[in-house]
């Protein structure tokens, strides 16, 4: 497939030694831009924490952005399919978001108000409730939390523990709910015994080795057995938290039938069901909220990322009879972010009024249709999957032993996934990695992506996979030739 080259443009800043108002052109400006870019990256490496993540794999310095496009300090332009880890439903600097923020700034309204009522907050809550599943919204209460999704997860755990008087939680293998202590306990890498881990159904790497409806049914039966067996070691929990699509876990959509079973199992045992819609919400999966695919009504929804219209905002929305908190039982200094609420209201309304959830379903299906043949064309592509505009491509070692059966999936290949990410960046495409072993290339484009941009993303990604596959084949051939030796096979 053809590669669309990244444009190179001069950075609009006078270079060192220029007279006021003067500007270098051509090679001189480009060289200064590259020097500025490299200097900023060097200073970041010297000053920032070793815990930094995206900056390691994406050595770019964004200076301007609009929609799907980011421009770096070195003048290169990129198509951004990371979208702030799914935060930018409308892409960068959408006009309706900028207008909403400017309106608040120009009004003289206070920007910091704790949890006081304001017209901006009232408008946000009204629009949010308008988008929620009707049966859920009619009995809903909202708690504004600290600015990140993990804060809302912590609040949800405190809520159900207070409401039930129980302490344990149920979560799922491969889950990701945030980086604070309680959220980490419920995420896939934790080992704390206060959270019981349950199998999350998937087709490609089914924990029971069968996949499909049968695998999902076995996962549901496992959950029932754990809760009903008095010797399981798992007492009745305060709640269950699940993601309708595991994002960081490798873009794994939960089967709708299984999600309905989880709702039945929890309701029958008076266990509140918490649905984490931090990444799946606001049209991302092809429905405004991912729970709408299965038709369930959860007890609690955790919301963040896109609801703030690119600015930090997180809330918990829950059934009114769970609202047993005493005043001050959960708080946070920055839970009244007026600019985020204004940007969020504009984003929610735009997605709703312009049918962007439905468009995400259509464009996502088209992208999957184009990408799935890669698994047949390249032996390093194990699986292509997704829902709406959450798409994942799992890279595997084509010569590794299949597991658990001879026709099972090959071992994950994180080094190949990282190579695809690098090749994408060379072609002006920003993608994320995820999955159990960081072997899944993830696409999270804004819901406003155009048809032309969609084709460009697919072309660049396919070219990157092709380049990595060719290199890997050449490396394997070189290794085999080396093993032959001068006197034939060893």
From TrEMBL:
Gene Ontology molecular functions: diaminobutyrate-2-oxoglutarate transaminase activity; pyridoxal phosphate binding
Gene3D superfamilies: Aspartate Aminotransferase, domain 1 (3.90.1150.10), Type I PLP-dependent aspartate aminotransferase-like (Major domain) (3.40.640.10)
Keyword Acetylation: no
Keyword Transferase: yes
Cofactor: pyridoxal 5'-phosphate
Pfam families given in the database record: Aminotran_3 (PF00202)
InterPro entries: Aminotrans_3, Aminotrans_3_PPA_site, Dat, PyrdxlP-dep_Trfase, PyrdxlP-dep_Trfase_major, PyrdxlP-dep_Trfase_small
Keywords: Aminotransferase, Pyridoxal phosphate, Transferase
Region (Disordered): 1-34, 467-490
Pathway(s) it belongs to: Amine and polyamine biosynthesis; ectoine biosynthesis; L-ectoine from L-aspartate 4-semialdehyde: step 1/3
PROSITE patterns: AA_TRANSFER_CLASS_3
Class of this enzyme: transferase
EC numbers: 2.6.1.76
Compositionally biased tracts (Basic and acidic residues): 473-490
Family, as annotated: Belongs to the class-III pyridoxal-phosphate-dependent aminotransferase family.
Protein name: Diaminobutyrate--2-oxoglutarate transaminase
Species whose genome carries this gene: Streptomyces populi
């Amino acid at each position: 497939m053809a590669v669309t080259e990244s444009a190179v443009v001069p950075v609009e800043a006078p270079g060192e030694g220029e007279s006021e108002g003067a500007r270098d052109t051509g090679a001189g400006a480009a060289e200064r831009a590259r020097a500025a870019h490299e200097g900023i990256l060097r200073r970041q490496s010297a000053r920032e924490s070793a815990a930094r993540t995206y900056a390691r794999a994406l050595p770019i310095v964004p200076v301007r952005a609009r929609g799907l496009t980011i421009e770096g300090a070195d003048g290169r332009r990129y198509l951004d399919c990371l979208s702030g880890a799914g935060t930018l439903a409308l892409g960068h600097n959408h006009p309706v978001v900028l207008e909403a923020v400017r309106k608040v700034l120009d009004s003289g309204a206070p920007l910091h108000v704790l949890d006081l009522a304001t017209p901006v907050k009232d408008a946000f809550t009204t629009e949010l409730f308008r988008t929620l599943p009707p049966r859920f919204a009619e009995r809903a209460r909202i708690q504004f939390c600290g600015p990140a999704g993990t804060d809302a997860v912590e609040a949800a755990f405190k809520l159900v523990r207070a409401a039930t008087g129980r302490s344990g939680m149920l979560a799922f293998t491969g889950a990701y709910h945030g980086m604070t202590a309680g959220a980490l306990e419920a995420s896939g890498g934790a080992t704390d015994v206060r959270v019981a881990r349950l199998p999350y159904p998937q087709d490609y790497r089914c924990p029971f080795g069968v996949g499909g409806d049968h695998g999902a049914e076995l996962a549901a039966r496992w959950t029932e057995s754990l809760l009903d067996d008095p010797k399981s070691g798992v007492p009745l929990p305060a709640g269950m938290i699940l993601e309708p699509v595991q994002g960081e876990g490798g873009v794994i959509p939960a089967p709708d039938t299984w999600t309905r079973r989880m709702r039945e199992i929890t309701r029958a045992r008076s266990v509140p069901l918490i649905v984490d819609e931090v990444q799946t919400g606001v049209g991302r999966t092809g429905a405004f909220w991912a729970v709408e695919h299965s038709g369930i009504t959860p007890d609690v929804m955790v919301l963040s990322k896109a609801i703030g219209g690119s600015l930090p905002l997180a809330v918990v929305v829950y059934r009114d009879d769970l609202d047993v908190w005493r005043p001050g039982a959960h708080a946070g200094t920055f839970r009244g972010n007026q600019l985020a609420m204004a940007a969020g209201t504009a984003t929610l309304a735009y997605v709703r009024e312009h049918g962007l959830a439905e468009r995400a379903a259509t464009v996502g299906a088209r992208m999957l249709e184009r990408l799935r043949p890669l698994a047949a064309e390249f032996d390093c592509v194990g699986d292509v999957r997704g829902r709406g505009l959450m798409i994942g491509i799992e890279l595997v070692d084509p010569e590794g032993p299949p597991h658990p059966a001879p026709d099972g999936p090959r071992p994950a290949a994180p080094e190949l996934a990282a190579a695809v990410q690098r090749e994408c960046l060379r072609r002006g495409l920003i993608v994320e990695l995820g999955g159990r072993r960081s072997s899944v290339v993830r696409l999270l484009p804004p819901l406003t992506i155009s048809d032309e941009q969609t084709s460009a993303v697919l072309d660049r990604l396919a070219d990157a996979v092709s380049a990595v596959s060719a290199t890997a084949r050449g490396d394997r051939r070189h290794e085999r030739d080396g093993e032959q030796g001068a006197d034939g096979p060893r």
